[in-house]
Amino acid sequence: MADWMRDLAVGQWYDMGQGPVEVIGIDVDSEVVLVQHFDGELEEFEFDAWMELRAQPIAPPEDWTGAMGCTREEVDDGVADVPRVGRWDDPLDRIDQDIH
């Protein structure tokens, strides 16, 4: 693996001089880095092109909702309405429940 790829990871944000982008995919076989711009636009770069960009890692934007096409309030309002069911539940949440 090339040295420059050690820090490259899905979910990492980068500054390419045109605003923040998030790495959303890395295809090692095809040698492609897939990024999503803050406004939601998707773009892919071949490894060689990615290295030439000299993109710098940055912290995620404080308001990451740009790519989602919604406002922070819409996201915050919806969180409380989402029922917590399924395999991602924390089993400790039900520890005090009486199971028959």
Class from helix and strand fractions: alpha+beta
Topology order in helix (H) and strand (E) letters: EEEEHEH
Oligomeric state, counting identical vs distinct chains? single chain
Enumerate the strands of the largest sheet in spatial order, edge to edge or round the barrel.
4-3-2-1-5
What does this structure look like?
The chain has 100 residues and is α+β, with helices and mostly antiparallel strands. The protein contains two helices and five strands, in the order ββββαβα. A five-stranded antiparallel beta sheet has the order 4-3-2-1-5. A hairpin with a 4-residue loop joins β2 and β3 (32-37). It is elongated, with a radius of gyration of 19 Å. 6% of the residues are buried.
Give the helices and strands, then pairings:
Layout: E1 13-15, E2 20-27, E3 32-37, E4 42-46, H1 47-53, E5 56-58, H2 72-79
Antiparallel strand pairs: 1-2, 1-5, 2-3, 3-4
